[in-house]
Amino acid sequence: MTKKHKSALSVKKGVKEVNSLNEKSVSKFKQIKKNTKSVEEYVNGIKNGEITVLSQAITLIESSKKEYFEKAQEIISECLPFSGNSVRIGITGVPGVGKSTFIETFGMHLLDKGKKIAVLAIDPSSERSGGSILGDKTRMEKLSAEKNAFIRPSPSAGSLGGVARKTAETIILCEAAGFDTIFIETVGVGQSETVVNSMVDFFMLLMLAGAGDELQGIKRGITEIADLIVINKADSDNIKNATRAQAEYQNALHLFPPSESGRNPKVVTASAENGSGISEIADLLEDYFLFTKKNNYFYERRSKQAKFRMYETINEELKNRFYSDKKISNKLKEFEQDVLAGKISPYAAAQILLN
Ligand code: GDP
Description:
Layout: H1 7-10, H2 14-26, H3 28-33, H4 39-47, H5 51-62, H6 66-79, E1 87-93, H7 99-112, E2 117-122, H8 126-129, H9 141-144, E3 149-151, H10 160-176, E4 181-187, H11 192-197, E5 202-208, H12 220-225, E6 228-232, H13 239-253, E7 266-269, H14 278-294, H15 297-324, H16 326-340, H17 346-354
Parallel strand pairs: 1-4, 1-5, 2-3, 2-4, 5-6, 6-7
Guanosine-5'-diphosphate (GDP) is lined by residues 1, 3-4, 93, 95-101, 232-233, 235, 271-273.
């Protein structure tokens, strides 16, 4: 995907900084080797808003090594009392819809208002491709040059459940470091949007006018969990189409039951490229958070999410322990063969292995 850069952008100092961010993410090993700080040093660094320390601590969270995991858990526990003071915004949409452009433009707008922004990603494709939706160097170069913005690519290893846990924990550290607006980006395919929805206060769906639902990979489920639908690229020749799509989606949303938040989802048009509609979206969000904090929905949603995370972690951990058990893995293939040969029923085989 090529981006249309304004000429001034290409000479921005920020380009260099994006490079170093990506180098960091690929040389995690080197970074971990330098991670000899004590838990207290990590926690103090994070609370002082030191980005390098924050990055190193996140690397610990992402590590699969037991000793790093344990250290990370201590850091998270210490940071927990200083977390929570933010708004967490989920953004989804198919590749090319304009997510990174939108986050950049919206992020710059929020920085102007004095906000501190962290951008995280959950990328279900990174496991297979080894890439990451935030790994591309050309993405969000303006935002990444800003000292009040922190951009972290998706952890590239592990199951979706594992990535979800790591992201939820990274949110805690970012909040303790003083970031008050957290964006969590994901591609609107697979299960990742459900996972993202389980950790955000507001869920935004980016769409394009003229592209059929199927083409956009949007399942009915996503439309239902969206708090806001943004028809992006509403600029030049596309404005008319975007406005028409807006009316169509708004009509379709009327068919859904009223939202638990007390605020029904809206559909707006915007251009992440020229900035139109962006300040309206910022106002809309501000109003949403004021409203849902007043009627308590904001806090109830977070409590529900915490409960969900606990059960998710238990489920994930039980599964991991079962499959990583030596005795089980030795027997698993054997039982599989027996099931295939019709010697034992799948249910009975599962019961024996579980027992
Ligand atoms: P992502 O894959 O969803 O993150 O999409 P990108 O942000 O990388 O954008 C994909 C392409 O669409 C890029 O070439 C952008 O320059 C372009 N784009 C993004 N937002 C807009 C917009 O509002 N209007 C127009 N005309 N192009 C846009």
